[in-house]
Design a protein that fits this description.
Helix content is 51%, strand content 11%. By secondary structure, it is mostly helical. The relative contact order is 0.09. Keywords: Membrane, Metal-binding, Transmembrane, Transmembrane helix, Zinc, Zinc-finger.
Length: 140
């Protein structure tokens, strides 16, 4: 197993007169490679303050870059899949809630029918109950 030697990070004072920021690159060319830069460095605008820049870590081999980038892509895919599964779970929970309400309404309707003597034949009642139960358990 090849390890990347790490140097201890020390603070430098940039030309602006402030301590440098310790940052980590996450680009495909330099994944997880630490560097120091002027603390006025803005990654989004590429504004570099006084232009102080220094790599802290040595450069990875191409194989290490490929493996790191592949693992980062896998993690991103898993995050997307997790987000989709959470949305699907929320949908199933919502559907379960609707089915439970429908089941309660049917039970109430059955109670009213019994009270007023409007009972359906027993097998129809059992059939309705079985269908509702099957639908409820189908989602779990």
């Amino acid at each position: 197993m090849t390890t990347i030697p790490r140097r201890k990070t020390s603070f430098h004072i940039c030309k602006c007169g402030y301590p440098t920021s310790n940052l980590t690159s996450w680009t495909k060319q330099h994944p997880r490679r630490r560097f120091q830069a002027c603390q006025f460095y803005e990654q989004d605008t590429d504004s570099r303050g006084c232009d102080f820049f220094k790599w802290v870590d040595i450069e990875m081999t191409e194989w290490q870059k490929d493996v790191t980038n592949s693992l980062m892509a896998d993690v991103n895919m898993q995050k997307i899949e997790l987000r989709m599964l959470k949305m699907e779970l929320a949908d199933v929970k919502g559907e379960k809630g609707c089915l439970e309400l429908e089941n309660q309404a049917l039970k109430h309707q059955l109670t009213v029918m019994k009270k007023h003597g409007l009972m359906l034949p027993a097998f129809y009642c059992i059939l309705v109950f079985v269908v509702v139960v099957v639908i409820l358990f189908r989602y779990f």
